[in-house]
Amino acid sequence: MSEIHEGQRVAVLADSQNLYHSAQSVYSRNVDYSKMLEKAVMGRQLTRAIAYVIRADSPDEETFFEALRDIGFETKIKEIKTFGDGSKKADWDVGISLDAVTLADHVDTVVLCTGDADFSRLCTHLRHEGVRVEVVAFEESAAADLKEAADSFIDMSEREETFLL
What we know:
This protein has about 160 residues and is α/β, with parallel strands linked by helices. The protein is built from seven helices and eight strands, in the order E-H-H-E-H-E-E-E-H-E-H-E-H-E-H. The chain has a single domain (about 10-165), classed as 3-Layer(aba) Sandwich (Rossmann fold). The strands form two sheets. Strands 3-2-1-6-7-8 form a six-stranded parallel sheet, with helices on both faces. A two-stranded antiparallel sheet has the order 4-5. Strand 7, helix 6 and strand 8 form a beta-alpha-beta unit. The mean pLDDT is about 90.
């Protein structure tokens, strides 16, 4: 796959739920999305930055969504679904995958900010289409299959002071 150069067009797709739960379970801290976006872009041309978030009616979520927009992320918001048995579900796997495939014709690199193994096949597909795929996640919670399927992996755990608030 292509090497990194400043003329590359980059799309950054952030799986906010995955990042949040990883940062909380391992460090009991939050992700610094501004620093993560800066590292993901690495001086290249940012085409799109999308943060996929879940509305769970928590007190500070609107402030968080606004902060993401201020940083430069477009936010895609999904309502959490509660089932009859009381269980709850909300994920963006299909939405992220569809956006990545759609953006593939318009960018040189897709940066997936997630450790979710469900995106391994997406990485393989994008690379087959000639798109460079980079993964940004925490080593402790990043699936081995995902890391292997990408062209590169940026371990946020190696730079806690940079990527965590």
